[in-house]
Amino acid sequence: MAAVEEKVSPHIVLFPFLAHGHVPAFLRLADLLRARRPGLEVTLVSTPRILGTLSLPPSSSSPPLRLHALPFSPADHGLPPGADSLADIQVHQFITFFQASESLRPAFEEFLSGITSSRSPVCVVSDAFFGWTADVARARGTSHAVFLPGGAFGNAVFFSVWEHLPHARTAADEFPLLPDFPGVVLHRTQIPRYMLPATGADPWSAFFRRVAASCRDTGALLVNTVRELEPSGLDMLRRSFGVQTWPIGPVLAPPALSDDDAGIIQWLDTHPPRSVLYVSFGSQNSINAGQMRVLARGLEASGRPFLWALRPPLGFDAKGGAFRAEWLPAGFEERAARAGTGMLVRGWAPQVRVLSHPCTGAFLTHCGWNSVLESLSRGVPLLGWPLGAEQFFNAKLVVEEWGVCVEVARGNMESSAVGEEEVAEAVRSVMGETEKGGEMRRKAAAIARAMADAWEESGGSAAECLEGFLRSVETSVR
After folding, report:
1. Can you give the C-alpha Rg of the chain in angstroms?
2. Are 99 and 203 in contact (CB under 8 A)?
3. C-alpha dihedral over 454, 374, 23, 152, to 10 degrees?
4. Closest C-alpha among 92, 95, 101, 130 to residue 203
5. How far apart are the C-alpha atoms of 187 and 422, rounded to whole Å?
């Protein structure tokens, strides 16, 4: 009798980019993979400093998630020592950081060589910004996929703009995104500040064109979106990159519990349902000081309670000491605290717990994709203030297609000024008992249901796509 060939499971290597918005999505992906394939070996690769900040919850999965550190010295590239994440630097240093991140390649090649010599076949799942790992994987005979923690439409437009620079071909404020997607019309205020002067021969263009080329060189794209919510965006990605696309979203981390959150949750508990506006521009974004004062006055004028996760304004070191009083209107924080109408949190706030709280009625956000998903998965509508990267295109999607967002402002003060009454009116229109507010809440609730349905074991599109991806990997390594 012929011997039965033993099935060997692949070893999956996850390599997120060095940014706070990317690492948690990869950690959650690791959980999803291991839950679907008990016994699957998964290794998360990053720098020692980033791995040292991870707090991994106890897991019933076996074997445990492995961590592998790659040496990284930011100071060797003209960056501050210890700047292992985009959150540690200013926007003007981003391109230096992107280029420095490519120095991880030799250490990653050495790591992959070591594990591919073992019996288990390997599949590398990298961030798009580490798309060069496709070449490394191919050289060692392993399969490769790119995981996009962002959405389909936002990424498709973002990379198309970098490749074609449509804003550099015209003096008009509005222009079609030719030649890929002629139906998409952009405004100059939707082009990130560092993208506006790009010529195609500059370091920014070179980096992102390398990233786009790598996305065409991979075997598959995993996308943090829902098939039913972004059919046209997924079609754009498929047409642009020409590879198999698996929408496996929403990939969301569970709420993190901390005793430090008690005061915030207690303050939220004192307010009626849907009455509080949550304000946050993410872990590595901020508005400038003038906008910060305008926003503060607009929040007061709206008459709505607010919880504001506050970072130093644009151009100031987020870790550089005390918050300055002149960044806010005189007496603003004291008035809000005295009346119980506003709470300012310096730095980080427990965002998922805040958005899950019944008193949270809307979220004023930079439209980073994690924030969009975290809010809408809980049926909380949005006020958009995109600041950079694909956030402008995420905002376009949730305003124009999904109808769950009112855009307050764009970018910096030079490209998009906003007044306090505009802020106040936007808050009132979303949170008030108005026809518009009611419609936005109904649409947000419908999106929340679609996101939950995507992970239903019986017929959920995300569950089916993740299973399809795993089967394709297992087939390719037999």
Report:
1. 22
2. yes
3. 60
4. 95
5. 20
- CA dist., res. 142 & res. 140, Å (int): 6
CA distances from 231 to 228, 246, 303, 382 (A): 6, 12, 39, 21
> Strands, E, within 235-372: which ranges?
244-247, 276-280, 306-310, 342-346, 360-365
By the 8 A CB rule, do 349 and 263 touch? no
Angle 265-306-430 (CA atoms, 0-180°, nearest 5)? 120
β-pair partners for 18? none
CA distance 430 to 442: 12
Sign of CA dihedral 77, 80, 82, 84: negative
- Rounded to whole angstroms, what are the CA distances from 351 to 69, 254, 295, 297, 354? 28, 11, 20, 23, 5
Are the C-beta atoms of residues 226 and 461 closer than 8 Å to each other? yes
DSSP states along 284-295: S----HHHHHHH
How many other β-carbons are positioned within 10 Å of the β-carbon of residue 319? 11
Report which residue type is found at 236: M
Q: What tokens were used for 48?
A: 């020692």
The DSSP code sequence of 399-440 is IIIS--EEE---S-TTT----HHHHHHHHHHHHSSSHHHHHH
CA-CA distances (angstroms) from residue 28 to 149, 284, 441? 11, 21, 27
User: Distance of CA 125 to CAs 130, 145, 170, 252, 276, Å?
Assistant: 10, 5, 38, 17, 39
DSSP-derived secondary structure letter, 313: P
Query: What six digits make up the tokens of 459?
Result: 């017929």
Pair of tokens at residue 3: 């011997």
Q: Which uninterrupted H or E stretch holds 174? A: strand 174-177
pLDDT (tens place) for every residue of the chain, 478 residues total: 444 445 567 899 999 999 888 999 999 999 999 999 998 999 999 999 999 988 776 665 567 899 999 999 999 999 998 899 988 888 889 999 999 999 999 999 999 999 887 667 889 999 999 999 999 999 999 999 999 999 999 999 999 999 999 999 999 999 988 788 988 999 999 999 889 999 999 999 999 999 999 999 999 999 999 999 999 999 999 999 999 999 999 999 877 767 678 899 999 999 999 999 999 998 777 888 889 999 999 999 999 999 999 988 877 766 655 678 889 999 999 999 888 899 999 878 899 999 999 999 999 999 999 999 999 999 999 999 999 899 999 999 999 999 999 999 987 545 457 899 999 999 999 999 889 999 999 999 999 999 999 999 888 999 999 999 999 998 875 5
